[in-house]
Design a protein that fits this description.
Elements lengths: L20 E4 L2 E8 L11 H19 L7 E8 L5 H11 L6 E6 L9 E8 L1
Parallel strand pairs: 3-4
Antiparallel strand pairs: 1-2, 2-5, 3-5
Length: about 120
């Protein structure tokens, strides 16, 4: 199956220097998502609020291509402060309560828009 870039509601394909979603060979790759509300920077309320909004953003993209959280097979989380790792994990578990995807968590010094956490996921059909 060749690479396809699904048209997403409200997203002009040429408006970004990357694709938010790409599908190839039965896998669906989502670009990194932070905990930002549409049209603004990261939500206020700390790591828990950012993690919840980040995962809501992932869910919106998954639903736009006919998938959901149970279809995610791999996640990579980037976090700026490992002292907040447990708080991030507590929210993450709400979205992946059973049979969670494999995951790597990477400590970084800075993320886009000064977010505290970012995630990229791979899902399968």
């Amino acid at each position: 199956m060749p690479k396809t870039v699904p048209q997403l509601p409200g997203v002009e394909p040429s408006s970004l220097p990357f694709s938010k979603v790409v599908e190839a060979n039965g896998f669906v790759f989502l670009a990194g998502q932070i905990g930002d509300a549409p049209g603004s920077g990261p939500v206020s309320g700390g790591i828990e609020a950012e993690t919840r909004q980040m995962l809501e953003n992932v869910g919106s993209l998954l639903r736009a291509v006919g998938l959901d959280y149970s279809d995610v097979v791999k996640a990579t989380v980037y976090i700026t402060d490992f002292d907040e790792f447990q708080a991030m994990n507590a929210v993450y578990r709400e979205y992946f309560p059973a049979d969670p995807p494999t995951r790597a968590t990477v400590g970084v010094t800075r993320l886009a828009l000064d977010a505290k956490v970012e995630i990229e996921v791979i899902a399968t059909r």
